[in-house]
Design goal:
single chain; 258 residues; Rossmann fold; 2 domains; five-stranded parallel β-sheet; two-stranded antiparallel sheet; globular
Length: 258
């Protein structure tokens, strides 16, 4: 009886201490939204209600499984939307977490500019897209779209690789045998698709003794705009022997938010 009473008193003291510590922590280090820096409660899970609503809007809606653009499933013909039906795409399909706008856009921009703590939230969105894709079970290797070594050195990390490391898969591993052999200009938003394709043409190579022959690969990237970078990567991987190449991106740009 006395032992049981002692345990209850110890447990109560621990709970009071924890509650007091949380209160002090909230006063000294108040929680703020990861996106807009507004004050939030500890239970808000890193984002304020406004940014959560924006994020849910960004990650909702149907899209074309071939190019990733917004498209109703009833508007697809042979698995392609009207916008990509006549496009030459070297990747075999795509999964996206959302559209490039509002809270998701701000999160990705922060992620690309020294906010590596965004990895967990963004990777969970990418993983959900992967789990819902029709090709998830086929993947043998994840291939992060590489940065040129000068950009990698300046930033300190490759954001696509950080996302790839957190993807859940029963057997697929990450390959870094795709490399960016030439530093390209940052892809300008206003450039034509042809200009963007020229900018990255021949920019990627595969390392000797790669393991791509006959494999099904999944490129991992942050944003697809025209698709020029993904297309060039997929073309390079298939020339190296890959059987199929899919793509997984955090967002597709150029879409209208509801």
């Amino acid at each position: 009886m006395e032992v049981s009473k002692h345990h209850r008193m110890v447990d109560r003291a621990k709970r009071l201490s924890l509650s007091a510590w949380r209160g002090v922590s909230q006063l000294l280090w108040p929680a703020v939204c990861d996106v807009c820096n507004d004050a939030i409660c500890d239970t808000d899970n890193h984002l304020c209600p406004k940014c959560w609503n924006e994020l849910l809007t960004c990650t909702a809606g149907d899209y074309c499984p071939r190019c990733g653009r917004d498209a109703s499933k009833y508007g697809l013909v042979a698995g392609a939307c009207g916008a990509c039906r006549n496009e030459e795409l070297h990747f075999d399909g795509i999964a996206r977490a959302g559209v490039y706008g509002d809270a998701l856009q701000r999160m990705i921009l922060a992620f690309k500019h020294d906010r590596s703590e965004m990895t967990a939230a963004l990777a969970s969105l990418a993983d959900a897209a992967l789990q819902g894709s029709p090709f998830g079970d086929e993947i043998d290797l994840f291939v992060p779209v590489p940065l040129h070594w000068t950009r990698r050195l300046r930033r300190g990390y490759n954001q696509s690789h950080l996302v790839a490391r957190r993807l859940r898969h029963p057997h697929a591993r990450i390959s870094k045998d795709l490399v960016r052999a030439r530093r390209t200009q940052a892809q300008p938003q206003a450039a034509t698709p042809a200009a963007r394709a020229r900018n990255v043409a021949g920019a990627f190579l595969v390392r000797d003794r790669h393991d791509f022959n006959g494999k099904t690969l999944c490129l991992v990237d942050d944003v697809k705009t025209s698709g020029a970078t993904l297309n060039e990567c997929a073309k390079t991987l298939k020339e190296a022997g890959a059987a199929k190449v899919y793509a997984l991106v955090l967002a597709v740009a150029g879409q209208r938010l509801a």
